[in-house]
Design brief:
The protein is α/β, with parallel strands linked by helices. 54% of the residues lie in helices and 15% in strands. It has a six-stranded parallel sheet with strand order 9-10-8-7-11-12, sandwiched between helices. Strands 1-2 form a two-stranded antiparallel ribbon. The protein has a two-stranded antiparallel sheet with strand order 3-6. Helix 3 runs parallel beside helix 4 and helix 4 runs parallel beside helix 6.
């Protein structure tokens, strides 16, 4: 390897072994003059090569997943911001800020590959147990991102509807103002739906829906016979309005394999696919998103294959049944002919 800066040579090349057809033909040796710069150059070369292979793998994987059905609704549990910051010796606010940048990228990636609905778990009801400083910092960060989405021309060019699900009564006034502002500005958009869960808990969501329905029945607005799955869905966050649709794929980063009380009605009822991955949220890459979609597609293919197998079994059973009935009919005719002959 040869490196130079200001016309200085940082490594002498003498000989290193070169083999041709199993036969050694030359011996070259690298003698670095400055070991630190030399190692830095090697790291740069390694990262450069890795990046080239990574981008090519990402490109091929995207081509592959685009050949099959893309999930219409993806829900993401963005976990690991604090642990990511901790392993780098940084503050928690740094981790949240890095995670917020990845969130913007994920919204972009989902739109590009054809996802229609994306739900992001930004702040749970359990997160209120964190320090006041951290909670305030998160609300300020979320507010900043809402205002950025509001002013981003792509939001309006792509007709992205933004809605918030959760208990807004627990949120600060300035954040509620920003939420109302962006919901009003994007309320008529239909191409891409972005749901942001803030102060959200799945059980709490169902409880408030049941209470709302009970109140309507008590006041005579609804009858008990009208209560069904569709009615309950309509009373879940973000009520009033169009309910959050069933989830096709749940993604959780950070290594934990649980759904953390996230969209239980929309996810569990639809038997959606789940993808748990090790990277912390700030480390989440497009290739991780593509891999999760591949898992969804594999699950769909398995279910389709299983369904086809069951159908074939039923068809075979019916064919055998019909065959048995015909044999029985032939037997009866033969019996009748014997009686006539006798």
């Amino acid at each position: 390897m040869l490196g130079s800066a200001k016309r200085e040579i940082y490594a002498d090349i003498s000989h290193i072994w070169i083999f041709l057809g199993g036969k050694r033909i030359k011996n070259l040796k690298i003698i670095p003059r400055n070991k630190g710069i030399f190692l830095a150059g090697l790291r740069f070369l390694k990262n450069r090569i890795f990046k080239i292979f990574y981008l090519e793998y990402e490109r091929r994987l995207e081509i592959e997943i685009l050949k099959s059905e893309i999930p219409q609704h993806i829900a993401v549990i963005m976990d690991g911001n604090r642990r990511y910051a901790g392993q780098l010796g940084k503050t928690r606010s740094f981790g949240h800020a890095m995670g917020a940048e990845v969130t913007e990228k994920v919204i972009e990636w989902c739109y590009e590959i054809g996802v229609k609905q994306l739900t992001l778990y930004a702040f749970s009801t359990e997160n209120f147990q964190r320090s006041e400083e951290e909670v305030d910092g998160l609300f300020n960060l979320i507010n900043e991102k809402f205002l950025k989405i509001y002013s981003d021309p792509r939001t309006h060019e792509r007709e992205t509807q933004v809605r918030v699900i959760g208990d807004r009564s627990t949120l600060p006034a300035f954040l509620n103002e920003s939420i109302e502002k962006i919901e009003k500005a994007t309320g008529n958009y239909k191409k891409f739906h972005l749901y942001v869960a803030i102060a959200y808990g799945g059980r709490q969501d169902i409880i408030q829906a049941v209470r709302d329905i009970a109140s309507c029945i008590s006041s005579g607005k609804l009858s008990l016979e009208e209560v069904d799955e569709n009615l309950i869905s309509k009373h879940l966050y973000p009520a009033p309005g169009v309910s959050v649709p069933n989830v096709d794929l749940v993604i959780r980063t950070g290594g934990d394999e649980r759904v953390s009380n996230f969209l239980p009605w929309q996810a569990n009822g639809s038997e959606c696919a789940a993808y748990f991955c090790a990277p912390f949220w700030p480390e989440f890459r497009k290739i991780d998103l593509l891999r999760s979609i591949r898992v969804y597609q594999a699950r769909k293919a398995e279910k389709k294959q299983e369904q086809s197998y069951r159908i074939s079994k039923v068809v075979n059973f019916l064919e055998v049944g019909n065959h048995g009935e015909k044999i029985e009919e032939i037997g009866q005719l033969q019996s009748i002919k014997k009686q006539e002959f006798s």
